Each structure stands twice: as C-alpha cells, then as structure tokens.
C-alpha cells in the first residue's frame, strides 16, 4: 500500500514541478511515508526524522504522511518542531496546500472517504508490477491491530474506478497487477443499479487485458475466501498460484482473544479447497508470537500448524502493543525474552519449510518476471509465480520482462536459474 501511495505522491509532485532526488541535503521537500503496524516501525520514523532535520537545507519542507501521522497527530509537531506537515493516509492528496503556503503548518489526520483516489493524477508510466488499491480500512477489528484507527472502517472503491486504473497501468507498462487492501478479499461494491461486484469480478475483468500476464492480491482474511474467489484459482491462469492468508496463531484460544477466526479446521478446509482447484498453489502466512496470555501450549499449536501447512514464505513478528487497541491493555503481557525465544523457534520452522520448498523447485521450469539487475550488475533478479527471488546470470542479449527459467540451485533465501531460450 505504501509503495502505491509513494508512487502517487511522486506523480502529484511532478505535476508541481518537482523532481526526485536521493540526496536529503539537496532536497527542497522531504516526505516520510510511514507505517504504524508495529511500535518498531513508529520508532524508526522518529529516528529518521531526527537525522533528517540535522542534515536538510534550512528552508527545506519536511513532513510525514501515512499511519504514523494519523497515530501521532499534533504530538508529532511537539516531538519534531521542524515538521511542516502531518497528513494521515487518506489526506496526502492535500500536499499542494503546503506548497501554496509553505509557512503554515498543516495537520490533517481526519478519516475521510476515498477522495484521494479521485484527486490524485494517473501515472504516465507504470512500473512492470502495478499496485492497485481496491479498498481501504478494515471492519474485523483484531484486538492487536491499529489499522481500524489509522485507516478507518472498510471502504471499497467503485468497480469502474479500479478497472480504469488497471487499464491505465496496462497501457503504460504494467504486465502484473497486484490488488491491495487491508482486507482485500472482502472487497464488495454495489453500483447504482444494485449489481454487486467482488474481487473475483475484478480478477476476471482484469484478465481480459492482453498486456496483463500476472494477477495477484494481498492481504487476505480467511473467512473472506468465498467459493467464487477460490474457483478463480482453478479457472483463471493469469491468477498466480500463490496466496498470503494470515493465520497469526495456531491456538484457537489465542485466536479468540485476537478476535480472529478460531476454527482451525475451517482454515484448513479453505486450503484444501484451494489445492483441489489449483493443485500447484502454495500458501504463505503471517504470525504473531507472544500475544498476551499465550502459554507454551498455545505456542506449540502455532508450531504445529506451521509444520502441517508447510507455508512456503511467511512473516513472523513478536507481539507489539499498539495504542488504541484492546490487546495493549490486556493482562498477562508476555516478556520480551519469552517472545524472542518463541520467535526464533517459529522462524526456524518457517525457514525449514521455505528451504524445503525452494529445493523442491530445482529442475523445474517456471515463467518468471524480471525485476532488474542485482547489486553487482552482473546478474538479473527474477520473481517466480510463488514470489521467490531467482538470480540469473545476465545474458549478452536483450530479454523481455517474462522469461522461462530453469531452476538450477536453491537455498532458504532464494533460487538460482538459467534462461531457457
């Protein structure tokens, strides 16, 4: 989501005569686009602001946008007096106001609607992978999650607006579309004629664009994996055989305290349905360890489901208390030491799953997307249909963005391969 927001902010500022620079000391306008999902992310923002305010030009404008701006509000000005603006995730389209009045401190953290999508300019050149938000906010209110506070209640964009964005992306260079939302598979939009559109309809319509070769979406909520969406994995070849479906914990007791779906059998049934319609599909997940009152037995159940499902690539974190959430004031908070030990144990299991899957890919041929040069400039970085990174020696001829790659080697982190001419 932040990648998309950053691209649209850049496009908007280019219309006002700005060009991008990587040198903070040369910048006239410095923007931190922020995430508040974990306390560490918020801490990094203020650490970076401290460095920037010492390095920037005296008259350079400095501000933050996004979820930390919404979380901190006016307190951000108290912590960093040099800030010129603090704009929430649904307010960054108001940046031109600060450009017109650079001497005025601008604070706008209100939870609006979908106005920013209407007011921001279309990009004139799309990246090969285009991120297209289809909804904002979330109604599920997991007890650990700050998103309902920073992003608000769930709002789905009009179907035609989303398709307009995908068509523009396709015409300006995209060959892969990634639909985004805090609860992306909960997308539902009813038009003025009463017709209901869902994520499966967006996928079906987008797949008709000849330029678009790959489609995916993130991040999904288990109980929103409706049968029509599951069926899309079986009938639409452009939809990648990869799904991130966070479970967070393997313990029904902890899931109930998280206000998450606590029926593990239902979660497994969804995966079984997916594998029935698309046998080559693979699943990744998100995990939180050390949630308040998590016992050794609860954590053992998380390890068990990680082994049973064999997620090929997952994100795992220590529980981080966030303001405005119910879990932050729950009793029996877990010590950082216990969290660290459990996280290491879980990471060991998840890393082993990932390593096993990567090794199983050796000898296979896959259509992969080129992301450009690696740091050495001698190799190309590709992305497989399962979002694995694959390193390939750069050929002495020009290639297209999509290439058939034979996997020749693998480790936990990545694959090695060669282009099949």
Structure description:
With 421 residues, the chain is of the alpha/beta class. Strand 16 and strand 17 (389-393) form a beta hairpin. The mean pLDDT is 95. It has 4 domains: 2-108, Methylthiotransferase, N-terminal domain (Rossmann fold), CATH 3.40.50; 122-240, 2-Layer Sandwich (Transcription Regulator spoIIAA); 243-360, Transcription Regulator spoIIAA (2-Layer Sandwich), CATH 3.30.750; 365-419, OB fold (Dihydrolipoamide Acetyltransferase, E2P) (Beta Barrel). It is 34% helix and 22% strand.
Descriptive labels:
single chain; 421 residues; alpha/beta; Rossmann fold; Transcription Regulator spoIIAA; 14 helices
Question: How are the elements arranged and paired?
Answer:
Elements: H1 2-14, E1 29-34, H2 39-55, E2 61-66, H3 67-72, H4 75-79, E3 85-87, H5 95-100, E4 106-108, H6 115-119, E5 129-133, E6 135-136, H7 147-150, E7 155-156, H8 159-171, E8 176-180, E9 188-190, E10 196-198, H9 199-206, E11 214-218, H10 227-235, E12 242-244, H11 252-257, H12 264-277, E13 282-289, H13 296-309, E14 314-318, H14 336-360, E15 365-373, E16 379-383, E17 389-393, E18 402-410, E19 415-419
Parallel strand pairs: 1-2, 2-3, 3-4, 5-8, 8-11, 12-13, 13-14, 17-19
Antiparallel strand pairs: 6-7, 9-10, 15-16, 15-18, 16-17, 18-19
Helix pairs in contact: 10-12, 13-14
